[in-house]
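3.2 Worked example (two chains)
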Amino acid sequence: MIPAKIDSNSIAPIRERDVESIIDWFDQHKQSFYLLGLSYLSNQQQMEELFYQTIIKVHKQLPRFKRDTSFETWVTSIFIHICRELSYDRSLLARVETEPRQDFFKALDCLKENEKDAVVLTYVKGMSKEEVAHLLQVSENKIKGILFSGIQSLRIEMGYGPTFNGCKEYHKDYINYLERTLDRPRKIDFEKHLYHCQDCQEDLASFQDVMLTMLNLPDRLEDFHVPVDFIENLEARLAEKEKHRQKRNKKRIRKGFVFAGIFVLLIGIDFFTGAFSNLYYNWTEKNQELRAFLQHDLGERLNLEDESDGVKIKIKGTIADEVQTLVFYEIEDTKKDSQYMMDNFDGVFVENQHEIMDGEGYQGFYPPDLESDMNKEEKNVYHGKISLQPINTDNGTIKLQISKLQKIISDSAEQNGGMGFQIMGDKIGKWTFEIPVTKKPSVEYALKGETQVEGIPVRFDKLTIAPTATVLHYDINMEQPNKQIDNLNFNHLQVNDKKVKVDLYARSFFDTQLDVNWISYQRHFSPLFGEKPKEVNVQLESAQLTFDDHHIIELDSSKDYPQTFEYAGSTISIDKVEAGQPAKVVISDHGIENRAYETLHFQIFGEDENAINSMEMYTEGVLMDKNGVVYDYNKNPVIYEEIEQPRHFITVLSVELQNDRTGEKVNPKRLEIYGYNAIKYLDDLVKISLK
C-alpha cells in the first residue's frame, strides 16, 4: 500500500509492484474519491473512466512526485483535473443522463469552476484550506474569498434567495468568525457592528445555515456507496490495457518528398520570391484550414500513422500557441464505409499532460463537419481537428493515446436538433502517437473602449492575436442593484478591414478582478493571419440578463384553482396546487407577446420549510422569432439556428415536490420568485481604440 506521504525509501518498491500498489491505495481511499467524483460527474461510466485515467496518470507521473506535499494531495490534484476534463459541458453533444442527479450535486453544478473546486475540496473531500490553496495554486486568503462567494451562490441554489444585504466590508470576516479564527480586535469590531445592523444579522444567519450544511456533508453523503464491483472492473480494464500495450504495433512514421528535382528547384525560387510555400501546400494539402496555417508558417506538417482493428489514424499537422494546441487528423476505416471522429473529452488522453501542458489552459471543442468537400469525397475517410491545452514550453513532444473513436453519420438537421449529424456508437482500439510541437508567439494589444448594455457598463481591455484564435478581453460591471449580464454574445470582430466571426463553441472564460465590482471575460474569434491592428470594432449580438424582482405568493391546496397574480408586467396563472407525496404545483403563462421574462427563478416552500428536499420540474415552451412568429418545439422539431433572433419562453411549469427524508406528504404553502431571465438582442457596433 502507498502511504499518505511517500518517503525516499518507498518509491522503489512501489515502482516494482507497478500499478497494483496504486490500485490498492485507491481501494483504501475509494469512498472519499468517489464522493469527490460524484460532485463533477453524473453516471457510472464516467466515474469508472475517471478512476481509470487517474490510476494511469498517477502511475506514469509517480517518478516525478515531489515530497513537498502529501501523496494524497498530489493524487487529488490529478483526480480533480481529470474531473474537470470529463465534466466539460458540450452543447452540441450533450448526453442524456442515465442516472438521476441529486439536488445537492445539482446545486454544486451551478457554481463557477473555482467556487466549485474550493467548496468540493474543502467540504466534500475534507481538505484544509492550506492544502486546497496549495492544490489550486492560490493564496489561503484567496481560497477564503472563493469559499465565501461559493457559499453565497449555494445559498441561492438551496432556496434562500438572493435578497440578503449584509455590509460588503464585513463579508471577508464571515468564515473566520464562524470558524472562530477571527483575531480578537476584529471580532469585537464585527460583533459591535452586528449588534446594530439587522441586514448583517440576517445575512450572517443564512450564511451560517448553508455553511453548517456544508460542514455536515460527510454525514449526509454516507449513503453514497461505491459499487461492489467497481475496483474489480478497473483491475480488469487495466489488465486488458497492459495486454494490448504488449501486442500493439509500433507506430509508423512516413516521410517523403514528391518530385525531388522539382522540390529543389522550387526551394531556390522560394529563396528569391517567397512563392514556393503557397504553391507547394496548394499541391499537397487538401485540408484548406490546415493549408492556411502552413502557408503562413504557423504550423508543422506531419505524417504520423497508427492502425488498430482496421482503422487507420494519421496525424496531419499541429499548431501550438499560448491559447491552445490544434491537432489535425485523418481517420480511415479500411474494412467498412464508416467515418469516425475523435472526441478530445472522451477517449483521447495525453500521457505526459502534466509535464508539457498548462493544466489550467483552454481546451476547445470543434463539432464534426460532414458537409465539407473533403469529407464528402470518401465514405470511409474523415478529416477533422481536436483542441488540446496549450503547451507550457517553447517546444516538446505530445504523447497522445487514443482509446475510443465515435462513429458519425450525416443526418437531417430536423431529426437531430439542428446538429446535422448523429453519433452511432464507439470504436474501441489503441492508437498512440508522439507528436512534435513548437509554440508560436502571440501578440497582445492594449485597448481602450467602453459601452453600456441595458445600462450596465462594459469595457474592453486587451486583444490577443494568436495563430489559432483572436481573443478579446473585456470586463462587465457588477454594481447594478437589480440586474446583471450573465453572458454577452458577439457577432464579429473587425480589425482594420478584416472581419472574423465569433467561435460559437468556445467557452467564455471569466475571473474576478481585484476590483470586485468587475468581472473579466475572454471571447474567442477566428484567427487573424499577420494582421497588425490599427482600428478595432466589435459587433454586439445579444445579452443574457438576470433581473432581481422579489415576489411572494401564498399557496393553499384547499382553495380552488386556477388563480392569477401580476408579475413583471404579465398575468401568471397558478393552475394547480395539490398536497401529497409528491405534491404538485402547475404554473402557466401563455401570453408571450411583449413578455419581459423568459424563465423564472423561484422556489416553493411547504409548512416545514426544511422538509422539501426534492423538486422536479417539467416544462413546456415555445420559440418566438424577431417578427413575432411562434414555434411550438414540443410538437414539431425546430432548428434553433435557423430562427432569426429566437427567444425561448417557458409557458407551463409543472413542479413535483417530495420529502425524501420522512416520506410524509408535502403541503405547498408559498411560491417565492427571486427574479427572472431574459435575452436582449443588440445591434451595437462598438469602436475601440488602441492604447
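3.2.1 Second chain
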Amino acid sequence: MPETEPPRDPTSPLPLPSSLTAVPEVTPTALSSSSSASASSSSSSVSSARARPPASPRLQHFRRHRRAWLITAAATVFALLATGAVVGGAATGAGLAGFGEPGAASVVAAPTATATPTPTVTVDPDRPVPAAATTASRLRTCSVAGLAADGRLANFQGQVRNSATGEVLFDRGGTTPGATASVMKVLTSAAALSVLGPDYRATTTVMVGTEPGQVVLVGGGDLTLTRLPTGQESFYSGAAHLDTLASATLAAWNADPARAGTPITSIVLDSTLFDGPGWDDGWARSELALGYMPEITALQVDGDRDNPARSTSPRSEDPIGRAGQAFSDALSAAGAGSALTITRAAAPAGAAPLASAESQPVSTLIQQSLIVSDNTIAEMLARLVAVQSGSGNTFAALQSGIVGGLEPYGIDTTGLVIADGSGLSPANAVPPAYLTQLFQQIDSRAGHLGVIFDGLPVAGGPSGSLSYSDRFAGDNGVADGAVFAKTGWITTGYTLAGIVHAADGTPLTFAVYALGDVSDNAKQAIDTITAGFYRCGDNLSNN
C-alpha cells in the first residue's frame, strides 16, 4: 500500500521531483545572443553587475515570480519525461517555450533518463488465473420468460443452445440434474451406438443338451423375438420368429446321424445372460398389468405382451416361462413330440449349437424404441450395453455401463445418475445441459448418432408420440414439422428434448423439464414454450 503524503503548506513552493535537478535562476542577461555567451564568465559577470539598468516594473514582476515559473517548468519537464514527450535528451517543440520575457525562448536540458529494470512477476499458484476475455453475446430481444413462468410447468428446468455455435441462449437450472422420464432413452441409444454399434444383433440360440433328446434355448437378450407365426408381424416389425427358429432346430437335429431316430423330448431354458431382479425398485408394479413394462429377462418373446401386436398390452409374471412354452408349441408344430418337458438351467459349457435367430440391428431397434417410447427395447439395449462393456448384467451395472458408453462423445458426464434404460424410474438424473450438448452431435449426425435423429418423433408428424392430437395443437402448430424431440412422462414429471429448426433458419437444441406436482396439461405448456423457441430462433433472449 502507498504511504500517505503529509499535508503541505499552500504558501510554500512545490518541491522538485527527485528525478529532476534544480534549474539555475535565469536573468535577462542570460537570455542574450549566443555571441555574448561566448565571452569569459568572469568579465561577463562584472560587466553585467556594473551596466545593469534599473529594472522595469515588468522585469520586477518576473523576478518576483520567476521561482514559481521555474518550478512549474521543472514539473512540466518531469511530466513530459513520464509521457515520452522528451526525446533524445531535449524537450520537444514548443512544449517549454515562453517561460521568460515575451518573445524569449528557453530550452531546458532534460536530465539523463535512468533505465528502470523490468520487475519480476511472481504468480501465486493458489490464486486463480483470470480466464481470457470472451466476445460478448449480441443483444437478443425475443423473450419466453412469461411462458417459462407458466404454473403448469411446476418446477421448471430448461436450456436452449444454438446448435451451430454451441452458444447457450436460454437457461433455467440447466446444469442441475433432474428426472428425465423417457428422454433417458436418448442416452441409452447413444450408449448402445457407442458400445454395441449400429449393426449389432442380439442372438437367440438353440444348443444340444446333455441328456438324450434334450435341447437348450439360450436367450441372447432379444426381447423382440415373436411367437406369432411367420407371415404375421408383431408390434416389432421385422422381428425374428420363434417358429422359424423351431423349424431350423428340428432340421439340424435330424440332420445328424448320431441322433437319427431320437426325438426331441425336453427343453432347457437358459436366461442367465441377464441376472435378476427383473424389476427395478423405482417402477410402480402397476406398470406390468397396465402393459407398459415387462420383467427384464434375457429370454422372452414379444416383450412378454399378452397381445404381441399391440404396443400397450398386459405383461406376465413369468416371461421366461411364456417363451419356453411358445418354443415348445413351435417345435411340436414343426414335427417334434407333443409332450416336451421344460426346465431351467445354464447351457452346458461347449454345447454344440443347432440353430439361431437374430434380432433387428441396433439401428432399427433404436428407432422402434424412440418413435413410440417403447420401454422394452430401451431396457434390452441398456442391459446389453452393460454386458458388452463388462460392467455387469444387472440394473446396478447400468450406471457404469451407460455412462462409460457416453464417454466417447466428449461431454462431461458429471452428475448423471442412471437407474434404468427407459427413464421410468424417478431416480434417473440428467442436467438439461447434457442433453442440449448431446443433441448438438445428434443434429450434426456425428458418428452414428444420425440414427437417433431419424428415430425422433416429429411435431405434427404421421406417427410417434408427437403426432397425438393433444401435442402441438392450436397456435403451437406453428412448429409442426420443425420440432424433432423425445417425449417423456412419469407421475412426477413431463419432459421434452431434441432439436428445433427455428423460423429464422437457426438450428436449436433444447431440453425442458416440468417436474413435481404436475398434471397432464404440462404437455401443452411444454409445447407452448417449445413453439416460443421456434418463433424466436437465434433472437431468443435469456431474460
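3.3 Remarks
Residues 116 and 523 are 70 Å apart (CA to CA).
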